């Protein structure tokens, strides 16, 4: 058996934004409808170097392939001239279990599926007349969340906060939008807020989010992490999760439940929101921890598009 390895350059040729959006949306809807297999993720942490690694797998019922993904984020790599994210996805035949290909995506498919999930859910839950977003974070995912959301709705201004002023300026300069540095209160007080950091403590107090109509949390994807203040959930009229058990175990949603701010059964699956739409009764919060079925769906779509 010869196992094909597909490099990032070839993956980029077929992994259009539309392909990723479609695969992620369909996977989240299928997951909400119980048409997936999603085992618990495996996580390794390397605190001495601010690194972590995820192993996630999944399968959408009826798909000819399933996937196993390894993705690492080592947040000091920039100091060494290395990318912060890396990884690969193994695509396997769902009828035989035979490996079909290794997608040596250097972590990009993970980054793109995260961007797609965040953008889809943020767009669905943010009132249509909102064209300003506050971003807490300055890394790759912070940039992608803005760019992919902008592909779904026009944005007139972006307020960016981060702990390093140089990184804030670099992110603002990289966005083809009116992006400006902001205080944490200014960014968190935007009508639409996105958090994308590896923080282990809340980025701002709940009072800083007073002007927010919707908040999407991206970075809390391991036990011990936490971007959003648990008290914020007590004000939410709608809480959305990409996977109930996963977000309860190690998402901001779970942090709020353990703090006694919200009940453990109040969340709505992201796939239901994407399938049915939702009324916007007030503050909504989306806790997205990243699901293996989305990785598998994107990897399968890429492999099929490669036309081996």
Task: Please outline the helices and strands.
Layout: E1 4-7, H1 8-14, H2 17-32, E2 36-37, E3 42-46, E4 51-60, E5 65-74, E6 85-93, E7 99-104, H3 108-125, E8 132-136, H4 140-150, E9 157-161, H5 165-174, E10 179-181, H6 184-188, E11 192-195, E12 214-217, H7 230-233, E13 238-241, H8 244-250, H9 252-258, E14 268-269, H10 270-276, E15 284-287, H11 292-306
Parallel strand pairs: 1-7, 8-9, 8-11, 9-10, 11-12, 12-15, 13-14, 13-15
Antiparallel strand pairs: 2-4, 3-4, 4-5, 5-6, 6-7
Helix pairs in contact: 2-3, 2-10, 2-11, 3-4, 8-9
Strand residue content: 25-35%
Helicity level: 25-40%
Task: Indicate the multimeric state.
Answer: single chain
Main sheet characteristics = 8 strands, parallel
Tell me the name of the CATH class of the largest domain. Alpha Beta
Uncertain segments: none
Radius of gyration: 18 Å
Number of separate helices: 11
Stated plainly, the CATH topology of the largest domain is called Rossmann fold
- CATH-derived architecture of the largest domain: 3-Layer(aba) Sandwich
Structural class: alpha/beta
What would you say this structure looks like, in words?
By secondary structure, the protein is α/β, with parallel strands linked by helices. It folds into 2 domains: 121 residues, ornithine cyclodeaminase, domain 1 (2-Layer Sandwich); 170 residues, Rossmann fold. The protein is built from 11 helices and 15 strands. Strands 10-9-8-11-12-15-13-14 form an 8-stranded parallel beta sheet. Strands 1, 2, 3, 4, 5, 6 and 7 form a 7-stranded mixed beta sheet that branches. Helix 5 links the parallel strand 9 and strand 10. Helix 3 packs across helix 4 and helix 8 crosses helix 9.
């Amino acid at each position: 058996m010869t196992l094909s390895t597909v490099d990032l350059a070839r993956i980029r040729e077929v992994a259009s934004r539309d392909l990723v959006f479609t695969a992620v949306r369909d996977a989240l809807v299928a997951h909400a409808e119980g048409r997936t297999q999603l085992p618990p993720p495996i996580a390794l942490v390397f605190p001495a170097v601010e690194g972590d690694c995820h192993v996630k797998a999944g399968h959408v019922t009826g798909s000819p392939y399933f996937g196993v993904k390894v993705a690492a984020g080592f947040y000091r790599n920039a100091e060494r001239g290395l990318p912060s994210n890396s990884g690969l996805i193994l695509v396997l035949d769902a009828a035989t279990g035979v490996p079909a290909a290794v997608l040596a995506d250097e972590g990009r498919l993970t980054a793109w599926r995260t961007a797609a999930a965040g953008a889809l859910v943020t767009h669905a839950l943010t009132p249509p007349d909102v064209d300003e977003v506050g971003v807490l974070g300055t890394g790759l995912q912070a940039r992608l969340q803005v760019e992919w959301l902008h592909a779904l709705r026009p944005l007139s201004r972006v307020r960016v906060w981060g702990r390093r002023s140089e990184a804030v300026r670099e992110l603002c300069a990289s966005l083809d939008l009116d992006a400006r540095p902001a205080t944490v209160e200014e960014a968190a007080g935007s009508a639409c807020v996105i958090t994308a950091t590896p923080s282990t403590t809340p980025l701002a107090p709940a009072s800083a989010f007073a002007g927010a109509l919707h908040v999407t949390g991206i970075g809390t994807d391991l036990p011990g992490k936490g971007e959003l203040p648990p008290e914020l959930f007590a004000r939410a009229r709608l809480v959305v999760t990409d996977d109930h058990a996963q977000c309860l175990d190690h998402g901001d949603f779970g942090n709020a439940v353990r703090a006694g701010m919200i009940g453990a059964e109040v969340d709505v699956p992201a796939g239901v929101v994407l399938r049915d739409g939702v009324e916007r009764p007030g503050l909504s919060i989306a806790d997205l921890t990243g699901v293996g079925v989305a990785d598998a769906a994107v990897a399968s779509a890429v492999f099929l598009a490669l036309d081996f």
